[in-house]
Amino acid sequence: MTLWMTGDPAADELLTNDPFALLIGMLLDQQVTMESAFAGPAKIAERMGGLDVHRIAEANPQEFAALCATPPAVHRFPGSMAGRIQAVAAAVVESYDGDVTRLWTDDDPDGATVLRRLKALPGFGEQKARIFVALLGKQYGVEPSGWREAAGAYGEDGARRSIADVTDPQSLSEVRATKKAAKAAAKTKG
User: Fold this and answer.
1) Which of 181, 187, 108 is nearest to 143 (CA)?
2) In sequence order, what E strands does the chain have?
3) How far, in Å, are 56, 62, 119, 182 from residue 23 at the CA level?
4) pLDDT tens profile 113-165
5) Which CATH number fits domain 9-155: 3.30.565.10, 3.20.20.70, 1.10.340.30, 3.40.50.1240?
6) For residues 81 and 75, is the Cβ–Cβ distance under 8 A?
7) Domain-by-domain residue ranges, the chain?
8) What's the pTM value of the predicted model, to 2 decimals?
9) What span, in angstroms and rounded, lies between the C-alpha atoms of 158 and 123?
């Protein structure tokens, strides 16, 4: 399995091999392009000599924010996102001894439990948590019972709604088109 999310082979390889990188990419996926969000973990890893959940959790907040703001910035809002990244890292260290995979492996959880655990993380609301459950199930081989139901519409087979459905440039374009149509429909409604 090799994920295709950024178009950058090195960044995609990190996302494929490091579940913490994937989680941070999902965290960053707001108010920037999907590719930019999921490229963020590679920028951090490059600047820190690796992506270590403990080092990130324990890093000096001002120094970590500066690292995230260094051009090219990790996110459009590097300061606030640096704080969120550190908060997620601290939660993973505190609740799962730094092992992100325990979110979906501890006590053989079902999809609803994985969703609940994700929603307990800082910065993970209902929608972001559902998309991540779909991403795990569709592309990462993490398929606890009931994962599609927990992911809601994002878990539908053949959907083109989110990063969970991006596997190449064509599917990225299809997801973008779906998002654009949804925004246009919301504008005419509201």
Assistant:
1) 108
2) none
3) 14, 22, 12, 25
4) 999 999 999 999 999 999 999 999 999 999 999 999 999 999 999 999 999 99
5) 1.10.340.30
6) yes
7) 9-155
8) 0.95
9) 27
